[in-house]
């Protein structure tokens, strides 16, 4: 790993404009534009990346070292051929990756934010917020990110940010139930609270760790896509994976699930043969297989040897997030100075678990679902709270219930 000696401090420019209007004493509406611009952000690339197709001896021209041994007919050595095509091989033949840190990355974010606030009156208060935003960058993470597919052109990674959430709606409210004094305070001091959070899906990236069709030995290749990226959603089931092309029996398709690999949906199985029609290379298809959308209309196939796939960064989306939490409080007061609050809290009231993003930029989780060579592309094997290391209290798990007692004096 190396660091650019001319590395400069990154800078972030924030800008916003907001307007607030009050509707009476207890209700207000705020509308604002919020944006930022990031430049000189830290990013990494391999400055010793071999030429495209080097591992298959498809680079032109070949280096003298390749021509002398690694790419001699009948004795081709893919690993050595790629190594001998690295830019610094002549001076440093023992070096492979040289991951170089520099100010190569940049980002921008623009959003419309609307907030409606009702202050406590007549026993009711709530805050509702909606954000429409779009974040783009060339790399959302720094030292923990994947290398660019092509380190000679890191600007081609510019796409929706890993953290891009196009729509987000949140509402939280409290209602103090009118009470009747007496009866040992059992008919007064009751309060109900609710929080609902709905957000649109986040992007996820893919990286082939096995097949090396580009021949660069970077193992960060993306595949070819034919069809609509929206047909490929991640979740509790992976994208149907078909293999066995070129065999006498023909291709068969399976789908990764919590219960292991199961036969894929009939639409995907019926469309498997169409992979051969859209594949850039029969050799790549035979070794790597293909993915078929559940509706049988879109396909993911390996790139031809010596090429990069046509797939851009972060073109796929996960399942989004929809949660609702609910609680009931009972307040007792004694002599005006002492208070006791008993609470029952329910997280994920509707008991609809959400599955984690396969690439997991927001929680550091990398399951098998981001790697097409795994056969489990799109499969998220855990919920976001488990992926982030905070089970039960995090978001996305099954319904949880909690009892609490609070004393005030």
Instruction: Report the sheet-strand fraction.
Output: 35-45%
Overall pLDDT confidence: 91
How far apart, in Å, are the first and last alpha carbons?
58 Å
- The number of distinct helices, counting runs of at least 4 residues, comes to 6
Helix content: under 10%
Number of strands: 19
The arrangement of helices and strands along the chain is EEEHHEEEEEEEEEEHHHEEEEEHE
Largest sheet: 11 strands, mixed
The chain-level structural class is: mainly beta
Instruction: Report Rg.
Output: 27 Å
Morphology? elongated
As residue ranges, the low-confidence spans are none
Which secondary structure elements does this structure contain, and how are they paired or packed?
Layout (H helix, E strand, L loop, with lengths): L1 E2 L7 E12 L4 E20 L17 H7 L7 H6 L15 E23 L2 E14 L21 E2 L6 E10 L13 E10 L3 E2 L19 E3 L14 E3 L8 E6 L2 E4 L2 H6 L3 H4 L3 H7 L1 E3 L6 E3 L14 E2 L3 E14 L3 E10 L36 H4 L12 E9 L1
Parallel strand pairs: 1-4
Antiparallel strand pairs: 2-3, 3-4, 4-5, 5-6, 5-7, 7-8, 8-17, 9-16, 10-15, 11-12, 11-14, 12-13, 14-15, 17-18, 18-19
How would you explain this protein's 3D organization?
With 409 residues, the protein is mainly beta. 8% of the residues lie in helices and 37% in strands. It is built from six helices and 19 strands. The protein has helices at residues 64-70, 78-83, 266-271, 275-278, 282-288, 384-387; strands spanning 2-3, 11-22, 27-46, 99-121, 124-137, 159-160, 167-176, 190-199, 203-204, 224-226, 241-243, 252-257, 260-263, 290-292, 299-301, 316-317, 321-334, 338-347, 400-408. A hairpin with a 3-residue loop joins β17 and β18.
């Amino acid at each position: 790993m190396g660091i650019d000696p001319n590395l400069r401090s990154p800078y972030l420019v924030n800008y916003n404009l907001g307007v607030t209007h009050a509707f009476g004493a207890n209700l207000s509406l705020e509308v604002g534009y919020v944006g930022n611009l990031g430049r000189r952000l830290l990013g990494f690339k391999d400055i010793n990346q071999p030429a495209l197709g080097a591992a298959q001896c498809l680079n032109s021209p070949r280096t003298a070292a390749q021509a002398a041994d690694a790419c001699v007919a009948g004795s081709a050595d893919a690993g050595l051929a790629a190594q001998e095509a690295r830019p610094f091989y002549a001076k440093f033949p023992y070096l492979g990756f040289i991951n170089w840190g520099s100010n190569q990355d940049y980002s921008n974010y623009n959003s419309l934010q609307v907030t409606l606030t009702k202050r406590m009156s007549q026993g009711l208060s709530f805050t509702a917020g909606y954000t429409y935003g779009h974040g783009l960058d060339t790399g959302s993470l720094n030292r923990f990110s994947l290398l660019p597919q092509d380190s000679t052109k890191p600007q081609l990674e510019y796409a929706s940010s890993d953290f891009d959430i196009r729509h987000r709606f949140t509402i939280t409210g409290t209602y103090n139930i009118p009470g009747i004094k007496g009866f040992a305070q059992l008919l007064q001091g009751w309060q109900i609270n609710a929080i609902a959070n709905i957000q649109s899906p986040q992007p996820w990236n893919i990286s082939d760790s096995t097949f090396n069709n580009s021949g660069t030995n970077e193992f960060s290749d993306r595949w070819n896509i034919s069809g609509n990226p929206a047909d490929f959603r991640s979740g509790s089931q992976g994208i149907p994976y078909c293999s066995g092309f070129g065999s006498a029996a023909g291709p068969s398709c399976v789908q990764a699930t919590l219960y292991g690999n199961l036969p894929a949906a009939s639409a995907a199985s019926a469309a498997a043969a169409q992979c051969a029609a859209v594949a850039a290379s029969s050799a790549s298809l035979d070794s790597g297989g293909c993915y078929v959308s559940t509706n049988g209309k879109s396909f993911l196939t390996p790139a031809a040897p010596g090429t990069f796939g046509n797939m851009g960064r972060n073109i796929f989306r996960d399942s989004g997030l929809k949660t609702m939490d609910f609680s009931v409080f009972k307040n007792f007061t004694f002599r005006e100075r002492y208070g006791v609050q008993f609470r029952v809290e329910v997280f994920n009231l509707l008991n609809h678990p959400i599955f984690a993003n396969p690439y997991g930029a927001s929680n550091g989780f990398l399951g098998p679902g981001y790697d097409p060579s795994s056969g489990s592309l799109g499969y998220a094997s855990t919920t976001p709270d488990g992926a982030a290391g905070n089970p039960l209290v995090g978001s996305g798990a099954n319904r949880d219930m909690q009892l609490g007692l609070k004393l005030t004096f």
